[in-house]
Each structure stands twice: as structure tokens, then as C-alpha cells.
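C-alpha cells please, single chain.
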Amino acid sequence: MEIYHYHPVTKEHLRTSDARQSPKEPGTFLVPANATIVPAGNAPAGSVRVFDPQSELWSSVDDHRGDSVYRKSDASKVIVDWLGPVGSDYTEQVPSSPNDTWGGAQWVPPAPSQLVVETERNRRLAAASFDYDFGDGRGVHTIGTDEKDMAAWIGEVMPIAQARLALSDSTAINIVTNTGTVAVSPSEWMDIINTGAAGRQAIWQYYFALIAMDPIPADYQDDQYWSPPPEPEEE
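Here you go.
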């Protein structure tokens, strides 16, 4: 005769073994604690058989143990360690960040912060290089605007140009652009700065408009927020 062993706490089927006869009562089979002679049967995929000692019946119970789920209340990850349904307080959907909130059917990411918009602003400012045409044999030069370039323009070239202008000194200043070395007069340098200012000021204006939105759009990096709207079509 076979006996079916179950876990003392979860009551899930653990193993099946042959029952031993009682040495004192031949023909009587010993059934240890947490075991039964009621056949356990087979559990469907993703479930286990669980015994109810009171009704002496087996039933199939969902088994998600070891699965990763996420608590809807705080987006925290939980490893299932219980038998039965996972429960409506959890979802298998993976949040994009710990700051996501459950929206009833999916995770909703938080609105972007001003800090991330600042990062996008700085990226665009650094990429706002522009061409300057000297109108002579020096041709067209590309003026870089990344962090290293701006530190040199503001910290080195600008003070020299301002000092020479104040002294009516037109001695040229040698600068290194993205397209090579070129000599510029103090007044030319001021014109270069003024030329580049238009594009940089536009980026700042788009930035101010974005951080004034409530909430800040999730797709704040899209070019539509950093460029003028298209001209209306003429009828």
C-alpha cells in the first residue's frame, strides 16, 4: 500500500512511499504523521497538490514560488514564497523605476524633474556649435560650444577681447576653432559671441518653457520642445 507524505505547514505533497506493516499487528499498515493513504493525484503545470486533513481531500493549488512580482503600492520587487494565487496587490509587470506608480493597468513613470531637463538643456547647449563666416581669406570656421570650449571662450578669450577693446587695441587674438586656428580681432570676437548667442538663447527659452509646464512632459527630450513650431501653411 502506498502512503502520501505532505508538508506539515503547507500541506503540499512531498513524496510517495510504500507503507510498512506494523511488526505487532501483521496486516496493519503504519501511516506516519503528515501522511495519508488518500492518493494525491497529479498536479497541473504550475501548481502542486495540497492535502486538507479535515476533509481528507487533495486539491491543486497555484505555485508561483520563486517568481518575481512587484508590489503595486511601492513598486518594490518581491520573490513569491507562498502557495496559492499571487494576489491583486502584486503584478508581474516590471516598473521602469522605483518611483513608478501603479495606474490600474500599468506602471506610470513620474513626471520628469527640472534636473533632468537641465541635463538635456546642457547637452543641447554643448552641441550648439555654429559656423562663422569671416568674409575673407580665413573663410568659414565652426565655433565649438561644448564645456571645454565654453570654458576657454569665457575664461580666456573674452577677457582679452574686452581688455583690448577698452584700450582701443585691435591686436588680433589667436583662437582654435573646430576647423582650425584663426586670428580674430577683439571686435570680431564680440561679433562671434553675438552670432552664437541667438541659438543659445533659443535653447534657454525652450528650457524655461518646459520647466514651467505642470507636469513636465515625459517626452521632454523630443525636438518639438526645443525648436520653433512649423510655419502655418498659406492657403
